[in-house]
Automatic annotation (TrEMBL):
GO terms for molecular function: glutathione transferase activity. Gene3D superfamilies: 1.20.1050.10, Glutaredoxin. This is Glutathione S-transferase theta. Keywords: Cytoplasm, Transferase. Belongs to the GST superfamily. Theta family. Coiled coil: none annotated. Residues 1-82 form the GST N-terminal domain. GO terms for biological process: glutathione metabolic process. InterPro entries: Glutathione-S-Trfase_C_sf, Glutathione_S-Trfase, Glutathione_S-Trfase_N, GST_N_Theta, GST_Theta, Thioredoxin-like_sf. SUPFAM superfamilies: GST C-terminal domain-like (SSF47616), Thioredoxin-like (SSF52833).
Length: 158
């Protein structure tokens, strides 16, 4: 039985799972899906992922959704190097802290930029007003600054 990973590489969570699997030489069958075309709402995909989001995996008769949960599963199943998800409790807690934080800050602000700069103009032929774009850039920059100051410090004590 081989691992199947359902991905739309336009999606940041999908790209993170894809890159993680590739960097760790995890063999998988890449199942390309199109969120933009609504594949996640198909009856077929609903059997794989009740949440109807991407990414998702099928490992034998086991199904799993959500990028963080998938990467943690792959970490355990394929015994990836300790730097990905440390055995040390406090170091692992720092990884969990970041994984929880990024879902409500970096990811939404980054996604908004993709929508504003690429998807909305392409799909609807309209540009986002400058003030709205400036606010989105400010939100993303604020989150990135916090990321650098809080999570990228090498001297942060455990």
């Amino acid at each position: 039985m081989s691992l199947e990973i359902y991905l739309d590489l336009f999606s940041q969570p999908c790209r993170s799972v894809y890159i993680f699997a590739k960097k760790n030489d995890i063999q998988f069958d890449y199942k390309k899906i199109s969120l933009f075309e609504g594949y996640q709402y198909s009856e077929e995909y609903g059997k794989i992922n009740l949440l109807r989001k991407a990414p998702a995996i099928k490992d034998g008769d086991f199904y799993l959704a959500e990028s963080v949960a998938i990467m943690l599963y792959l970490t355990e199943k394929f015994h990836t190097p300790d730097h990905w998800y440390p055995a040390d409790l406090q170091k692992r807690a720092r990884v969990n802290e970041y994984l929880s934080w990024q879902h409500s800050t970096i990811r939404p602000h980054g996604s908004k930029m993709m929508w504003f700069k690429l998807l909305i103009p392409k799909a609807f032929g309209t540009e986002i007003p400058k003030e709205k774009m400036d606010n989105a850039v400010e939100d993303l920059n604020s989150s990135l600054t916090f990321l650098r100051r809080s999570f990228c410090k090498t001297d942060r004590s455990l």
